[in-house]
Amino acid sequence: MLTICWELTLNDLSKANDALSALNDIAESEPRFFKANFVHLLELANKICTDKDLNEIMTKDIILETMVATLERIPAIINENKNGKQIIDKAIELILNHLVTNISP
Fold first, then answer.
1. pTM
2. Domain ranges in the chain?
């Protein structure tokens, strides 16, 4: 599913935003859906947020919101994962980079 979202991001931003919004709805209502596969969600967020050709701020906002919503609702993703520190470091890096690059002067 996350691979499909990436492919949509490359080809059709409108459909990508719809798909990412659906993922966000899942993260808010059933975050356990991402518990076992959170690393894949983080990888998708990394791909979207670091893509230099993707200038769509809303797409980046949605994937970061999905990531944060999942972490807020299931902090065990960090606590129970042997790579928990790296996960939280990467999540914070993506969020801060997004905020810094999209601040209006």
1. 0.87
2. 2-101
